[in-house]
Description:
- By secondary structure, the chain is mostly beta strands.
- Helices cover 11% and strands 39% of the residues.
- It has 1 helix and 6 strands, in the order E-E-H-E-E-E-E.
- Strand 4 (51-58) and strand 5 form a beta hairpin.
- It is globular and about 35 Å long.
- It starts with a strand and ends with a strand.
- The relative contact order is 0.33.
Amino acid sequence: MTLATVPAAGEVLLINAFAFKVCMRKQADPWDRFACKWNEVETGIARPLSGRFVYQVRWPDGTVRKGTREIIAGQNGAAASTVTFKKTGS
């Protein structure tokens, strides 16, 4: 699985959806990347990644997108896929 941002140069932070729910109960601000141990994920690099994640993507101009994404790894030798986070649109 490869992650990408459109436009490029977005900083992708991921946390497992279950860990995010736990953090919501323990922290005043679950979106705080240090309080909830968010993982910064480098774009353009293939890595094993599968599950339900909460994400936040920050671009250099200050734009931030947040949400939840189900990421499913390829099965049975399927070609590697790319998950793209867009600055605008869906």
